[in-house]
Amino acid sequence: MTGASSGIGATTAGLLAERGMRVVVNYLRNSKAAEEVVVGIEASGGQAMAVRADVREAAAVESMIEQVQVAWGGIDVLVHNALIPYAVKPFQDMTWEELGGKLNDEMRAAFAVTKAVLPAMIEQGWGRIIYLGTGLSRQPREGMIALGTSKAALEQFARYLAQELGPQGITVNIVAPGPVADTRIADEFDDTHKQRQVAATPLGRLAHPADVAQAVAVYAGEDNAFMTGTTAVVNGGMSMY
Residue 84 belongs to what H/E stretch? Predict the structure, then answer.
Protein backbone atom coordinates (compact mmCIF):
# COMPACT_ATOMS: atom_id res chain seq x y z
CA MET A 1 0.00 0.00 0.00
CA THR A 2 1.50 3.34 -1.05
CA GLY A 3 1.41 6.31 1.33
CA ALA A 4 0.61 4.12 4.34
CA SER A 5 2.48 5.79 7.18
CA SER A 6 -0.34 8.10 8.33
CA GLY A 7 -3.97 9.12 7.91
CA ILE A 8 -6.11 7.12 5.48
CA GLY A 9 -3.16 4.95 4.46
CA ALA A 10 -2.22 3.88 7.98
CA THR A 11 -5.83 3.17 8.91
CA THR A 12 -6.41 1.15 5.75
CA ALA A 13 -3.20 -0.82 6.25
CA GLY A 14 -4.38 -1.78 9.73
CA LEU A 15 -7.81 -2.85 8.53
CA LEU A 16 -6.47 -4.96 5.68
CA ALA A 17 -4.07 -6.64 8.11
CA GLU A 18 -6.99 -7.38 10.44
CA ARG A 19 -8.64 -9.13 7.51
CA GLY A 20 -5.68 -11.42 7.04
CA MET A 21 -3.59 -9.63 4.43
CA ARG A 22 0.16 -9.16 4.69
CA VAL A 23 0.66 -5.43 4.26
CA VAL A 24 3.52 -3.42 2.77
CA VAL A 25 3.63 0.00 4.45
CA ASN A 26 5.16 2.26 1.82
CA TYR A 27 6.42 5.67 2.90
CA LEU A 28 8.60 8.46 1.55
CA ARG A 29 10.07 10.38 4.51
CA ASN A 30 8.70 9.43 7.91
CA SER A 31 10.31 6.09 8.70
CA LYS A 32 9.33 6.36 12.36
CA ALA A 33 5.64 6.69 11.55
CA ALA A 34 5.82 3.79 9.07
CA GLU A 35 7.51 1.56 11.65
CA GLU A 36 4.84 2.49 14.19
CA VAL A 37 2.18 1.29 11.75
CA VAL A 38 4.07 -1.99 11.32
CA VAL A 39 4.47 -2.44 15.08
CA GLY A 40 0.75 -1.82 15.59
CA ILE A 41 -0.18 -4.40 12.97
CA GLU A 42 2.22 -6.99 14.37
CA ALA A 43 0.99 -6.37 17.92
CA SER A 44 -2.50 -7.29 16.70
CA GLY A 45 -1.23 -10.53 15.17
CA GLY A 46 -0.84 -9.33 11.60
CA GLN A 47 2.10 -9.22 9.21
CA ALA A 48 3.59 -6.03 7.78
CA MET A 49 6.81 -4.51 6.52
CA ALA A 50 7.80 -0.88 5.93
CA VAL A 51 9.49 -0.05 2.63
CA ARG A 52 10.67 3.39 1.58
CA ALA A 53 10.12 4.45 -2.04
CA ASP A 54 9.26 7.60 -3.91
CA VAL A 55 6.41 6.28 -6.04
CA ARG A 56 7.09 8.92 -8.70
CA GLU A 57 10.35 7.15 -9.53
CA ALA A 58 10.03 3.91 -11.48
CA ALA A 59 13.38 2.56 -10.28
CA ALA A 60 12.44 3.10 -6.63
CA VAL A 61 9.09 1.39 -7.15
CA GLU A 62 10.70 -1.59 -8.89
CA SER A 63 13.18 -1.93 -6.02
CA MET A 64 10.32 -1.90 -3.52
CA ILE A 65 8.42 -4.59 -5.42
CA GLU A 66 11.55 -6.74 -5.62
CA GLN A 67 11.95 -6.51 -1.83
CA VAL A 68 8.35 -7.62 -1.35
CA GLN A 69 8.66 -10.49 -3.80
CA VAL A 70 11.81 -11.77 -2.12
CA ALA A 71 10.10 -11.70 1.27
CA TRP A 72 6.56 -12.73 0.41
CA GLY A 73 6.30 -13.64 -3.26
CA GLY A 74 3.76 -12.02 -5.57
CA ILE A 75 1.45 -9.08 -4.92
CA ASP A 76 -2.30 -9.68 -4.94
CA VAL A 77 -3.63 -6.22 -4.06
CA LEU A 78 -2.37 -2.73 -4.88
CA VAL A 79 -3.82 0.19 -2.92
CA HIS A 80 -2.38 3.41 -4.32
CA ASN A 81 -2.92 6.11 -1.73
CA ALA A 82 0.31 8.16 -1.83
CA LEU A 83 -0.43 11.88 -1.65
CA ILE A 84 1.51 13.80 -4.31
CA PRO A 85 2.07 17.42 -3.16
CA TYR A 86 0.01 20.12 -4.83
CA ALA A 87 -0.76 23.84 -4.66
CA VAL A 88 -3.97 25.08 -3.01
CA LYS A 89 -4.80 28.32 -4.84
CA PRO A 90 -7.11 29.77 -7.53
CA PHE A 91 -6.31 29.09 -11.18
CA GLN A 92 -5.59 32.78 -11.77
CA ASP A 93 -2.73 32.63 -9.25
CA MET A 94 -1.37 29.29 -10.47
CA THR A 95 1.59 28.61 -12.73
CA TRP A 96 1.74 25.84 -15.31
CA GLU A 97 4.50 24.24 -13.27
CA GLU A 98 2.08 23.91 -10.35
CA LEU A 99 -0.85 22.54 -12.35
CA GLY A 100 1.09 20.59 -14.96
CA GLY A 101 3.55 19.33 -12.37
CA LYS A 102 0.76 17.89 -10.25
CA LEU A 103 -0.82 16.22 -13.28
CA ASN A 104 2.51 14.75 -14.33
CA ASP A 105 3.45 13.50 -10.85
CA GLU A 106 0.01 12.03 -10.17
CA MET A 107 -0.05 10.01 -13.36
CA ARG A 108 3.65 9.11 -13.24
CA ALA A 109 3.17 7.56 -9.79
CA ALA A 110 0.03 5.63 -10.79
CA PHE A 111 1.76 4.42 -13.95
CA ALA A 112 4.89 3.30 -12.08
CA VAL A 113 3.20 1.36 -9.30
CA THR A 114 0.71 -0.28 -11.65
CA LYS A 115 3.38 -1.34 -14.13
CA ALA A 116 5.39 -2.85 -11.26
CA VAL A 117 2.61 -5.04 -9.82
CA LEU A 118 0.95 -6.18 -13.04
CA PRO A 119 3.33 -8.98 -14.11
CA ALA A 120 2.65 -11.03 -10.97
CA MET A 121 -1.10 -10.38 -11.12
CA ILE A 122 -1.28 -11.37 -14.79
CA GLU A 123 0.75 -14.52 -14.16
CA GLN A 124 -1.60 -15.70 -11.42
CA GLY A 125 -4.74 -14.52 -13.24
CA TRP A 126 -6.00 -12.54 -10.25
CA GLY A 127 -5.55 -9.12 -8.73
CA ARG A 128 -7.14 -6.11 -7.09
CA ILE A 129 -6.10 -2.53 -7.89
CA ILE A 130 -7.60 0.33 -5.89
CA TYR A 131 -6.72 3.98 -6.43
CA LEU A 132 -7.58 6.74 -3.96
CA GLY A 133 -9.32 9.55 -5.79
CA THR A 134 -11.38 12.48 -4.53
CA GLY A 135 -14.86 13.88 -4.84
CA LEU A 136 -13.16 17.03 -6.12
CA SER A 137 -12.68 15.36 -9.49
CA ARG A 138 -16.42 15.81 -10.10
CA GLN A 139 -17.46 18.45 -7.56
CA PRO A 140 -15.13 21.49 -7.71
CA ARG A 141 -14.17 23.43 -4.60
CA GLU A 142 -12.29 26.71 -4.34
CA GLY A 143 -8.52 26.45 -4.56
CA MET A 144 -8.49 22.74 -5.38
CA ILE A 145 -8.12 22.77 -9.17
CA ALA A 146 -4.72 21.02 -9.15
CA LEU A 147 -5.89 18.11 -7.00
CA GLY A 148 -9.32 17.79 -8.64
CA THR A 149 -7.97 17.85 -12.20
CA SER A 150 -5.19 15.34 -11.55
CA LYS A 151 -7.51 12.92 -9.74
CA ALA A 152 -10.04 13.17 -12.58
CA ALA A 153 -7.27 11.97 -14.90
CA LEU A 154 -6.50 9.14 -12.47
CA GLU A 155 -10.14 8.02 -12.41
CA GLN A 156 -10.33 7.80 -16.19
CA PHE A 157 -7.00 5.94 -16.24
CA ALA A 158 -8.55 3.41 -13.85
CA ARG A 159 -11.55 2.86 -16.11
CA TYR A 160 -9.37 2.14 -19.12
CA LEU A 161 -7.33 -0.32 -17.05
CA ALA A 162 -10.49 -1.99 -15.80
CA GLN A 163 -11.58 -2.60 -19.39
CA GLU A 164 -8.17 -3.91 -20.44
CA LEU A 165 -7.37 -6.06 -17.42
CA GLY A 166 -10.80 -7.55 -16.69
CA PRO A 167 -10.27 -10.56 -18.99
CA GLN A 168 -7.16 -11.40 -16.95
CA GLY A 169 -9.01 -11.57 -13.64
CA ILE A 170 -7.87 -8.17 -12.37
CA THR A 171 -10.35 -5.60 -11.06
CA VAL A 172 -9.60 -1.87 -10.96
CA ASN A 173 -11.64 0.55 -8.88
CA ILE A 174 -11.54 4.00 -7.28
CA VAL A 175 -12.40 5.11 -3.76
CA ALA A 176 -13.25 8.82 -3.83
CA PRO A 177 -13.55 10.44 -0.40
CA GLY A 178 -15.14 13.77 0.27
CA PRO A 179 -13.54 15.92 2.98
CA VAL A 180 -11.82 13.69 5.54
CA ALA A 181 -11.03 14.80 9.09
CA ASP A 182 -7.63 14.11 10.67
CA THR A 183 -5.63 14.37 7.44
CA ARG A 184 -3.07 16.83 6.08
CA ILE A 185 -5.58 18.14 3.52
CA ALA A 186 -8.10 18.92 6.26
CA ASP A 187 -5.53 21.12 7.99
CA GLU A 188 -5.39 23.40 4.94
CA PHE A 189 -8.79 24.90 5.86
CA ASP A 190 -10.05 26.85 8.85
CA ASP A 191 -12.87 25.85 11.20
CA THR A 192 -15.45 28.01 9.41
CA HIS A 193 -14.75 26.18 6.15
CA LYS A 194 -15.04 22.79 7.88
CA GLN A 195 -18.33 23.80 9.53
CA ARG A 196 -19.75 24.67 6.10
CA GLN A 197 -18.71 21.23 4.85
CA VAL A 198 -20.40 19.51 7.78
CA ALA A 199 -23.56 21.56 7.24
CA ALA A 200 -23.64 20.39 3.60
CA THR A 201 -23.35 16.71 4.59
CA PRO A 202 -26.63 14.85 5.28
CA LEU A 203 -24.90 12.46 7.71
CA GLY A 204 -23.79 15.45 9.76
CA ARG A 205 -20.02 15.01 9.94
CA LEU A 206 -16.88 14.74 7.84
CA ALA A 207 -15.54 11.33 6.90
CA HIS A 208 -12.99 9.65 9.14
CA PRO A 209 -10.06 7.66 7.73
CA ALA A 210 -11.81 4.49 8.91
CA ASP A 211 -14.80 5.24 6.64
CA VAL A 212 -12.50 5.37 3.64
CA ALA A 213 -10.62 2.26 4.75
CA GLN A 214 -13.86 0.27 4.86
CA ALA A 215 -14.57 1.10 1.21
CA VAL A 216 -11.05 0.09 0.19
CA ALA A 217 -11.39 -3.19 2.06
CA VAL A 218 -14.58 -4.04 0.17
CA TYR A 219 -12.82 -3.62 -3.17
CA ALA A 220 -9.76 -5.54 -1.95
CA GLY A 221 -11.70 -8.60 -0.83
CA GLU A 222 -11.29 -11.87 -2.66
CA ASP A 223 -15.05 -12.41 -2.67
CA ASN A 224 -15.73 -9.05 -4.38
CA ALA A 225 -15.27 -10.51 -7.84
CA PHE A 226 -17.69 -8.61 -10.08
CA MET A 227 -17.08 -4.90 -9.44
CA THR A 228 -14.60 -3.16 -11.72
CA GLY A 229 -14.32 0.28 -13.28
CA THR A 230 -16.45 1.72 -10.48
CA THR A 231 -16.05 4.59 -8.03
CA ALA A 232 -17.08 4.31 -4.37
CA VAL A 233 -17.99 7.80 -3.16
CA VAL A 234 -17.35 8.22 0.57
CA ASN A 235 -18.75 11.64 1.45
CA GLY A 236 -21.77 11.19 3.72
CA GLY A 237 -24.14 12.37 0.97
CA MET A 238 -22.44 15.75 0.41
CA SER A 239 -22.84 15.04 -3.30
CA MET A 240 -24.87 12.27 -4.87
CA TYR A 241 -24.28 10.84 -8.34
Answer: none
Whether residue 30 contacts residue 20, with contact meaning beta carbons closer than 8 Å, is answered with: no
Identify the helix (H) or strand (E) that includes residue 136: none
Alpha-carbon span 133 to 152, nearest angstrom: 8
Structural domains in the chain, sorted by start? 7-234 (3.40.50.720)
Q: Do residues 127 and 169 lie in contact, with contact meaning Cβ atoms separated by under 8 Å?
A: yes
Contact between residue 150 and residue 103 where contact means Cβ atoms under 8 Å apart: yes
Per DSSP, which regions of the chain are E strands? Answer: 23-27, 48-52, 77-80, 127-132, 170-177, 231-234
Amino acid 74: pLDDT: 84
Predicted TM-score (pTM) of this structure? 0.94
Q: Are residues 234 and 207 in contact, defined by beta-carbon separation less than 8 angstroms? A: yes
Q: What is the pLDDT of residue 111?
A: 98
Instruction: Provide the 10 A C-beta neighbour count for residue 27.
Output: 24
Please state, in angstroms and as integers, the Cα–Cα distance from residue 74 to each residue in 42, 69, 125, 127, following that order: 21, 5, 12, 10
47-101 pLDDT tens trace: 999 999 999 999 999 999 999 999 998 899 999 999 999 999 999 999 999 999 9
Give the dihedral sign, CA 217/121/52/156: negative
Tens of pLDDT, residue by residue over 158-190, are: 999 999 999 999 999 999 999 998 766 655 666
3-state secondary structure of 38: helix
